[in-house]
Predict the structure of Branched-chain amino acid aminotransferase.
Amino acid sequence: MSKKDKKIEIQLTDATVLVGQEKFEGYTLTIGKKIIGEIAELDNQFAIIKNGNVDSFYKKLEKAVEILIENYNLAK
């Protein structure tokens, strides 16, 4: 018996991200109805935000999104 492929909807939406006590322009990444991460634009770089703190920096938005999806899949 083969498994049926599930369609997974991933959305990247514009959002205001809270880093510490400051708000920055950024993005929210959601899979289905679950928010899996936030990305803020800081100093011409893209920072992954975890628990209100900067976790890591990336030069390209695509790389930050890729890392968030990887971490989400590994944590499952």
